[in-house]
């Protein structure tokens, strides 16, 4: 197989692989990586925000290495694999004469470069998008059983990487709708669905929490052209980097010649149009369109092989991009190289400081899955995020993290406290205070189920206790939060509830208590949603109920 690659290609590939390994070893984690490392501590078929591929890759890396490299090793491997597949996807025989141009082009893709060592869901998405296209190209030429089965497995791996993968599969299919009559194409789809059954089961067992959050519960904000639609266009420049003009120029000049080239066009236009439309409803993050990097790299490299002027400019600007990106990589490790603090700076310091001041007891961070997971990674001390009405749910809301600290002495770290038993500071000069709690008890999994009145103004409230132990009702207080139509919480109030049937003092394990209540008059104008929460033992109210739309 390696005969297909020039020696210079293999040399540069090994060089970049080693560069990514070194970068992985010396660069502290970013917050999202720490969060996905937390995923991997309890392997499952799904997680609150994403499917399970990112956790699987981290788990494999942790078997081989410790520390940051134990999170990132498989990202380095997949990145090298992406380079190899991109090379194979270009059929032009001239490519062997322009190996340096190929690496300058691909290395200049900003996020593809970063995902060469960072471990995020998009790392796997890029690799499996490239592999999917390579197998699809082979399927078009020779739809053997072997290629068909590999295509099905790759589609499943794509979907386990990130939910956005459905767009990759959908737009490739739309470029060749005749596949609907192809039995082997259906075999590939069937195999992919069978492989994805464990995740479907996980979603069902967890009340489709991921789908509900992404489509319904995620807070939004009022439309702003500069932050939404203009931001969408800027993001699609940023993900390509300094070569964006030549890359997009090659794309707009590209002419389809067969079903595969048509798939490349559909994939880019499809994803861009989909998220362009989405930009009128919500802020589109840069990485959401990252999958277009694969077809754009193929198209741009094919174009420069036939266009001397483009080749010259890609080489020149690519060299500038190479220098700047290498400098930026150095800054990720060594902060003084640039006067700005990033997530990879100072984590070991603030974690060590907080560990010493906390005396090694577990930490309960208020509303911060980022700091909880980062602290746990660098301290090897249990830490959780306790989420309340002013935040959102995350993996800590659905797993058993509460039980790791229940009944123990903990340090509780609020978001905006002005005093406390201890204080510590992040490298960005943000100061946090913490207070010790000797016997920590929280009940964030209590479920508040609201039924609107059919007549009158009294709502029904059912509070279900999913725990295996009884809960004293005297320790519980009920609250209501009002949010605007974008689900941004604007007001919080205590809620008076009436026990419908009897006076209970204990909410027994696996039991339900019934209340009625009337909506208190909010101070805010035109509230869009209300949500019921439980404040236990004086803690800020949790996200125990679902947002309920207020009808006028």
How would you portray this structure in words?
By secondary structure, this protein is an alpha+beta fold. It folds into three domains: 2-336, no CATH class; 347-437, no CATH class; 447-549, Sandwich (Immunoglobulin-like), CATH 2.60.40. The chain is 49% helix and 13% strand. The chain has helices at residues 7-26, 31-40, 53-64, 69-88, 99-108, 110-114, 121-141, 145-161, 165-174, 183-205, 209-217, 229-238, 244-253, 259-278, 293-306, 308-333, 347-358, 369-379, 395-398, 401-405, and strands spanning 363-366, 383-386, 410-413, 422-425, 431-437, 447-451, 458-464, 471-472, 476-483, 489-494, 498-499, 506-507, 512-518, 529-536, 548-549. The protein has a five-stranded mixed beta sheet with strand order 2-1-3-5-4. The protein has a four-stranded antiparallel beta sheet with strand order 6-7-13-11, with no helix packed on it. A hairpin with a 5-residue loop joins strand 4 (422-425) and strand 5 (431-437). The protein is globular and about 80 Å long. The model has no long low-confidence stretch (mean pLDDT 94).
Number of domains: 3
- Taking the alpha carbons of the first and last residues, their distance comes to 67 Å
Give the overall pLDDT as a whole number.
94
Helix content: 40-55%
What coarse outline follows from CA principal-axis ratios? globular
Radius of gyration: 26 Å
Category by helix and strand content: alpha+beta
* Beta-strand share of residues: 5-15%
Instruction: Please report the number of helical segments.
Output: 20
Low-confidence parts, pLDDT < 50 over ≥5 residues? Answer: none
Major beta-sheet overview: 5 strands, mixed
Q: How are strands sequenced across the largest beta sheet?
A: 2-1-3-5-4
Number of strands: 15
